[in-house]
Design a protein that fits this description.
By secondary structure, the chain is mainly β. It folds into two domains: 188 residues, Sandwich (Immunoglobulin-like), CATH 2.60.40; 222 residues, Sandwich (Immunoglobulin-like), CATH 2.60.40. Helices cover 10% and strands 34% of the residues. The longest helix is centred in the N-terminal third of the chain and has 19 residues. It is a lipid-anchor; GPI-anchor. InterPro entries: COB_C (IPR056900), COBRA_pln (IPR006918). It comes from Penstemon smallii.
């Protein structure tokens, strides 16, 4: 083997490894969105298919304005009709006489229908404006479906050509879709559950998410405080990039009184409150109280975006003591065990119709909870930043944490009086944090 080639070969393998591992999420290693096409009947010039989008991600959902799905036809197919979704453009259908297809584009773009459309345009799991819950939060709402009638296509499983070049926006970039692959046909149960039927042909498309495809900067940051130290560790400066610093608005600015300031723009451009971190979301973790057998943490999530309400938001934390969560106040909580034996990750999310909507920046743009954890006396310590999380995710994106050397330090003089001190000062100090930070 050529020495030069021998030297470059390991580098080539590393490039392949990191390019394929780019979308890998260590806290949700099996998370993906699977798009399944079931051919349920043949037509004189094609087929009718039921397309189902399953969100198997534990804590990353698709929020308003919803998903957008695209693909390229392998031949000269057209879409005769759709139920539960629609193509955004019809394209050039001038060659058709009489019946005109719903879409003649070679690369159709499809979106979900809005709620409230007539029943004859609906099927099960459609018409939610493209909003799809995460699997860990609500499996029953983690699915979206539509039906499509395809023409000028094959009329058997030997002549049908699979669509290619699938794209998924959810609602923005971040997803990469693999090629369509033929899989065993889906089996259905009749309503009386006494008979099984199956699709005539089935293929799957798997889409995975990478935060790097969205932005080179994080979309959220984390700050810390504790009862045992007056120091507040803020989000790092320019955590989310400061390229939009000139477009931000001070919280006391007269611009906030302008009509339409809180109206979302078509391109989803944010309008942020001016901060040193320039993040739309800040998560604050406060070590509040140290009891004899328990300790308590307060978590506050603040929205600094004047043009975004976060629906069905999720917050994921990784900390070794999450295996002993005793009680969570005002949030729903679910442990995540991606590696079976390691229970150090948990998902927090809002209670339905109570605080599952994180309002835009302003007086109501925050949500808070407290978490009571039981101590494992063999591992628990307040030294060296152990009480702070290892990772924080908001809506599936990893947040920027402060550098370890900036964490609140445990004073040597407080070692003996730590428990009594925390009981007396924890509440008042946290009030200072929430109001003034």
């Amino acid at each position: 083997m050529n020495p030069t080639n021998s030297t470059l070969w390991p580098i080539f393998l590393l490039i392949i490894f990191f390019s394929e591992a780019e979308a890998y999420d260590p806290l949700d290693p099996f998370g993906n969105i699977t798009i399944k096409w079931d051919v349920i009947s043949w037509t004189p010039d094609g087929y009718v298919a039921l397309v189902t989008m399953n969100n198997f991600q534990m804590y990353r959902h698709i929020m308003s304005p919803g998903w957008t799905l695209g693909w390229g036809w392998a031949k000269k197919e057209v879409i005769w009709s759709m139920v539960g979704a629609q193509a955004t453009e019809q394209g050039d259908c001038s060659k058709f006489k009489g019946n005109v297809p719903h879409c003649c584009k070679r690369n159709p773009i499809v979106v979900d229908l809005l709620p409230g459309v007539p029943y004859n345009q609906q099927i099960a799991n459609c018409c939610k404006g493209g909003v799809v819950a995460s699997w860990g939060q609500d499996p029953s709402s983690a699915v979206s479906s539509f039906q499509v009638s395809v023409g000028l296509a094959g009329t058997s499983n030997k002549t049908v050509k699979l669509p290619k070049n699938f794209t998924l926006l959810g609602p923005g970039p971040g997803y990469t879709c693999g090629p369509a692959k033929i899989v065993p046909s889906t089996v259905y149960l009749t309503p009386d559950r006494r008979r099984k039927t199956q699709a005539l042909m089935t293929w799957n498309v798997t889409c995975t998410y990478s935060q790097l495809l969205v932005s080179k900067h994080p979309s959220c940051c984390v700050s810390f405080s504790s009862f045992y130290n007056d120091t507040i560790t803020p989000c790092p400066t320019c955590s989310c990039g400061c390229q939009n610093k000139k477009d931000c608005i001070m919280s006391n600015s007269n611009k906030l009184k302008m009509v339409g300031i809180n109206t979302p723009k078509k391109d989803n451009t944010p309008l942020l409150q001016c901060t040193h971190h320039m993040c739309p979301i800040r998560v604050h973790w406060h070590v509040k109280i140290n009891y004899k057998d328990y300790w308590r943490v307060k978590i506050a999530v603040t929205n600094f975006n004047y043009r975004m309400n976060y629906t069905q938001w999720t917050l994921v934390a990784q900390h070794p003591n999450l295996n002993n969560v005793t009680q969570v106040f005002s949030f729903d909580y679910k442990p995540l065990v991606p590696y079976q034996s390691i229970n150090d990750t948990g998902m927090f999310y809002g209670m339905k119709f109570y605080n599952d909507l994180l309002m835009e920046a302003g007086n109501f743009g925050n949500v808070q909870t407290e978490v009571l954890l039981k101590k494992d006396k063999d591992t628990f310590t307040l030294k060296q930043g152990w009480a702070f999380p290892r990772k924080i995710y908001f809506n599936g994106d990893e947040c920027q944490l402060p550098p370890p050397d900036a964490y609140p330090v445990l004073p040597n003089s407080a070692q003996n009086n730590l428990i009594s001190f925390s009981r007396n000062s924890g509440t008042m100090f946290l009030l200072f944090v929430i109001i003034f930070l």
